[in-house]
């Protein structure tokens, strides 16, 4: 069954919300032409108090110039290599300079950097393992970088990236319907504020330089909480969406947002 536009509008305009849930389930099943489910999972270990840091394992978050760049992929240990116990090959999922989704397979060479064939990587959506040794995960921190700036990372002991940031592809729009966040700090009982942010405010985009503008927030303290957007938030092509966190003490922060993306037209 393929859902046409009148059926979709009926579902989204339902007053009791139940039929709207049906629409999202049909998207997940692949029954809605031009629409797919999307989510972004982020994890960050804060070793001390910090303010408005992107929920991802790296330092300050940045995006390449609009023309895109070539990336160097490298591990912090020699075991992430073509015959090692860690990750051997991985996929780099990215948007090119035209914001078209692409991916490239990279065979790792341990602590020796491997450059991507692509030279126009505008935004790395995620990296994940393809083949692995006996460890079934990264032995070290695996990064994709250019000119000293890291744009994506698979942390040691993980098998995929853990960044909450995504960029909207060409011809698409993100419709974000909710988010969830958690904080673990043990005896320190850190207070953490997680904000849903985007480079878009109303119809304006702020990607050069990247400015992340909050639209909602939740607070967590050694707990987890979800956030439903009663009115889904919509973001247009070329804009970045994700989550940031502010904590007053050391904490491990997890945060995910989810929704769908559809054809812009």
Report the β-strand fraction as a percent range: over 45%
* Structural class computed from helices and strand pairing: mainly beta
Instruction: Give the mean pLDDT.
Output: 92
Give the class-level CATH name of the largest domain: Mainly Beta
Shape: globular
| CATH-defined fold name of the largest domain | Jelly Rolls
What's the number of helices? 2
Please identify, by name, the CATH architecture of the largest domain.
Answer: Sandwich
Q: Which bin fits the share of residues in helices?
A: under 10%
Indicate the low-confidence ranges by residue numbers: 13-18
Alpha carbon gap, first and last residue: 21 Å
What's the number of structural domains?
Answer: 3
H/E topology pattern: HHEEEEEEEEEEEEEEEEEE
Sheet with the most strands, sense and barrel status: 5 strands, antiparallel
How many runs of DSSP E, i.e. beta strands?
Answer: 18
* Spatial extent as radius of gyration: 19 Å
Explain what the structure shows.
- The structure is a single chain.
- 36% of the residues are buried.
- Helices cover 7% and strands 49% of the residues.
- It has helices spanning 5-12, 18-28; strands at residues 36-46, 50-54, 72-75, 87-96, 101-107, 114-115, 121-132, 142-146, 149-154, 166-167, 172-184, 192-198, 200-201, 204-205, 213-220, 224-236, 240-247, 251-263.
- The chain is mainly β.
- It is globular.
- Strand 4 (87-96) and strand 5 form a beta hairpin.
- It is built from 2 helices and 18 strands.
